[in-house]
């Protein structure tokens, strides 16, 4: 990938070697770290080498005309940019057009430009787009009228955000379509909520997990399920699924995604992982579990995709009770810490690297662990 801002913009920090070499460097380093627990082959899910980020955030810099801006690599200043090679094709095409349109309207409609300090983009593989304009001012009816015209001209959903204010023009979500195991899955992605940023790598992540899971009539427990990114395709490999998540908005999106895909074998529950452990061990009853009898499930596997901090002690102890643990990690360091303890009861059967953030030192990982002494199942 060629980029005029390598070495200046702080976004891409691994730019002094070709992409394949940088990917190999990251994977080889981590293989050494995990060598005490796994010596087999590891799958590498590579990123497209350009235009791979389907959500992006930019500052707006006002120097006469507006410019997009990123943090300078020295972390002390900003660098203005006129393009970004890592954002999706749709975002890359819209970036200059958006600022040109706002500048063009500023003579008669200065309210769109005035006190605009940031732009967030959310796009899909098919090119659907939500753009969020961030302001240091109250958004009035004149702003809304101009924003409606801008959204119509560019054929996008548009949102204006200011302190304690959100104005939606057209809609605040897009529908992403992913093809996994030959089936199309539809996901509603909503502005200002978490989504996997690299759609192609995301498809590869889900596909890798499913490729190592036989179809079973038994059940799956998933913790930290988000909006159901993994949950929906996983449901095809199990009888029933219980999936938990602490975020209200994510649970609502997950339920919407179930309806979009005609899936009726998943129970989404708004519980933290610690709360689920309390419920599972009958330490505490939760009204949010009303109608769901955990004793009626025959759990075979647990799927966890925790935050960067990894698993807490109680959740890790729960996971150790399952014959199969599927662990997706956004932080190899805490994954390694958790594995040091889980390796007392489990062995690593499969490992994968997911290059969600190409041209950075960051790497996401997946492990599938199997109990050293699996329980007998009647």
Give an account of the 3D structure.
The chain has 378 residues and is an alpha/beta fold. The protein has helices spanning 19-34, 89-105, 141-154, 199-211, 231-234, 248-261, 273-280, 313-319, 332-342; strands at 42-45, 55-63, 65-71, 78-81, 116-123, 129-135, 157-162, 165-169, 173-180, 183-190, 219-223, 241-245, 266-270, 299-304, 324-329, 346-354, 364-371. The strands form 3 sheets. An 8-stranded mixed beta sheet has the order 1-16-17-15-14-11-12-13, with helices on both faces. 38% of the residues are buried. The mean pLDDT is 95.
SSE series: HEEEEHEEHEEEEHEHEHEHEHEHEE
| Inertia-based shape | globular
Mean model confidence by pLDDT? 95
Major β-sheet annotation: 8 strands, mixed
Radius of gyration: 23 Å
CATH superfamily of the largest domain: Vaccinia Virus protein VP39
- Which consecutive residue ranges, at least 5 long each, have pLDDT under 50? none
Assigned CATH class of the largest domain? Alpha Beta
CATH topology of the largest domain, by name, is: Rossmann fold
Largest sheet, order of strands side by side? 1-16-17-15-14-11-12-13
CATH architecture of the largest domain: 3-Layer(aba) Sandwich
Structural class: alpha/beta
Number of domains: 2
Helix content: 25-40%
Portion in beta strands: 25-35%
Total number of beta strands? 17
* Discrete helix count: 9
Separation of termini?
Answer: 55 Å
What labels describe this entry?
378 residues; 8-stranded mixed β-sheet; 9 helices; 7-stranded mixed β-sheet; alpha/beta; OB fold (Dihydrolipoamide Acetyltransferase, E2P); Rossmann fold; globular; 2 domains
């Amino acid at each position: 990938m060629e980029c005029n801002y390598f070495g200046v913009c702080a976004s891409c920090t691994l730019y002094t070697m070709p992409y394949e070499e940088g990917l190999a460097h990251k994977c080889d380093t981590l293989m050494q770290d995990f060598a005490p627990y796994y010596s087999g082959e590891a799958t590498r899910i590579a990123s497209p080498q350009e235009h791979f980020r389907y959500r992006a955030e930019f500052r707006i810099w006002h120097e006469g005309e507006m410019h997009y801006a990123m943090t300078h690599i020295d972390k002390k200043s900003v660098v203005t940019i006129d393009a970004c090679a890592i954002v999706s094709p749709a975002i890359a095409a819209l970036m200059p057009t958006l600022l040109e349109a706002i500048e063009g309207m500023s003579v008669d409609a200065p309210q769109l430009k005035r006190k605009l300090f940031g732009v967030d983009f959310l796009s899909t593989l098919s090119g659907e787009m939500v753009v969020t304009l961030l302001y240091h001012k109250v958004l009035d009816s004149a702003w809304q009228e101009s924003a409606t015209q801008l959204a119509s001209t560019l054929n996008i959903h548009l949102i204006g955000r200011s302190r304690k204010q959100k104005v939606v023009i057209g809609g605040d979500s897009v529908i992403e379509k992913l093809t996994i195991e030959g089936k199309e899955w539809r996901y509603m992605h909503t502005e200002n909520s978490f989504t996997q940023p690299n759609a192609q790598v995301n498809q590869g992540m889900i596909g890798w997990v499913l490729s190592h899971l036989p179809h079973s009539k038994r059940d799956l427990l998933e913790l930290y399920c988000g909006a159901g990114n993994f949950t929906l395709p996983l449901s095809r490999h199990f009888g029933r699924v219980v999936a938990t998540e602490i975020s209200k908005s994510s649970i609502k999106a997950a339920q919407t995604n179930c309806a979009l895909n005609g899936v009726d074998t998943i129970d989404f529950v708004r519980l933290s992982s610690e709360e689920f452990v309390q419920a599972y061990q009958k330490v505490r009853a939760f009204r949010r579990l009303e109608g769901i009898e955990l004793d009626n499930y025959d759990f075979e596997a647990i799927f966890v995709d925790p935050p960067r901090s990894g698993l807490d002690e109680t959740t890790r102890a729960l996971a150790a009770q399952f014959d199969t643990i599927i662990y997706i990690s956004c932080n190899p360091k805490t994954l390694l810490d958790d594995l040091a303890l889980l390796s007392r009861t489990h062995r690593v059967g499969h490992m994968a690297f997911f290059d969600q953030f190409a041209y950075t030192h960051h790497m996401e990982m997946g492990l599938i662990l199997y109990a050293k002494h699996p329980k007998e199942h009647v």
